[in-house]
Amino acid sequence: MDRPLATNPLRIAVVGVGAVGGYFGGRLAAQGHEVHFIARSKTLAALRQDGLHITSLAGDLVLTPDRVRAAADPQEIGPTDVVLLAVKTWQVEPLAASLRPLVSSGGVVLPLQNGVEAPTQLAAVLGRERVLGGLCRIMAQQVAPAHIRHFGAEPEIILGPLPGAKGEVDHAAARLAQALRGAGVRCQVSDRIVSALWEKLAFMAAFGGVGAAARVPAGVLRHLPETRALLTQAVEEVYAVATGQAVPLPVDLPARVLSYIDGLPAAGTSSLQRDITSGAPSELEALVGAVVRLGAAAAVPTPVFRMLYACLLPQEQVART
């Protein structure tokens, strides 16, 4: 369905034009926002030569090359209103300082990585008033450079200011949410964004970690008593670590996560499991490793996650050599 073009367009930089950055950036660009895609190598070449292609349950989209602004370096863009940061989790910290020119006139960065550490990593370099907390839900993959296939789940972004942030960050969050909704993306502004990030971590780390170690899909994990118990213990550990970090979570979180896993397709697997199984670099550190590290910082034992991390780390290190 055609939507009216934005009447108050944002100037947006999308850093990382994979499935997440390509989809959300493409939708915003199609609604008239000034979107600059920052990419490298084959993706940059494809954007400039062929444009951006999105095949989607919500309607296909093609941005021809004349409608795509693509660059290799943030320095080429100048100040923006918003940076959508959609790189891999392990790229966030090294990239943080390079984002300064993009937020130099009051802009904000919205990280969309899995895990809970990206907002803190960015805020340490850019300041809390320049960073939003955020998470997204979408089932999509990059099938070729600058070609995204959205195949499941209604695309959604939840975002909100970090605790203690000052300045115009609330206004920036509201304006970005309005832009996303105008582009057909379900969006919610949350005043408990840190809790929302931990709730997602409870599912991603438990399902991903146990699935990657057991090498079986959701149907087996939830049916076999031993692995179901391991899933439950893993979620309970995330809950305990969050409590130790003074992050409030609903007391029924373990039951809710197990209920969600029960509703997954029997053949479903996590991206963490798929990456580790295929020998690709994964988000092990941002999911399983994060629970171990943050648990240690809060003096909260995490025996299940320590075991999962020890089992999976050798394969991760091989993938990164």
Number of domains: 2
Unreliable residue runs: none
Strand order of the largest sheet: 5-2-1-6-7
> Measured on Cα atoms, how large is the radius of gyration?
19 Å
* The level-1 CATH class of the largest domain: Alpha Beta
Per DSSP, the total helix count is: 12
| Straight-line distance between termini | 46 Å
Run of helices and strands: EHEHEEEEHEHEEHEHHHHHHH
Structural class: alpha/beta
The strand count comes to 10
**Largest sheet properties:** 5 strands, parallel
Tell me the β content.
15-25%
What characteristics describe this protein?
2 domains; 321 residues; five-stranded parallel β-sheet; N-(1-d-carboxylethyl)-l-norvaline Dehydrogenase, domain 2; alpha/beta; 12 helices; five-stranded mixed β-sheet; globular; Rossmann fold
Could you give a quick summary of the protein structure above?
The protein contains 12 helices and 10 strands. With 321 residues, the protein is α/β, with parallel strands linked by helices. It has a 5-stranded parallel sheet. Strands 3, 4, 8, 9 and 10 form a 5-stranded mixed sheet that branches.
Characterise this structure:
Strand 8 (132-144) and strand 9 form a beta hairpin. A five-stranded parallel beta sheet has the order 5-2-1-6-7. Helix 11 (284-297) runs antiparallel to helix 12 (303-319). The protein has 321 residues and is an alpha/beta fold. The longest helix has 22 residues, at 193-214. The chain has helices spanning 19-30, 41-50, 92-95, 118-126, 169-182, 193-214, 218-223, 225-244, 253-262, 271-278, 284-297, 303-319, and strands at residues 11-15, 34-38, 52-56, 61-63, 69-71, 82-85, 108-111, 132-144, 147-161, 186-189. The protein has two domains: 11-191, NAD(P)-binding Rossmann-like Domain (Rossmann fold, 3-Layer(aba) Sandwich); 195-319, N-(1-d-carboxylethyl)-l-norvaline Dehydrogenase, domain 2. It has twelve helices and ten strands.
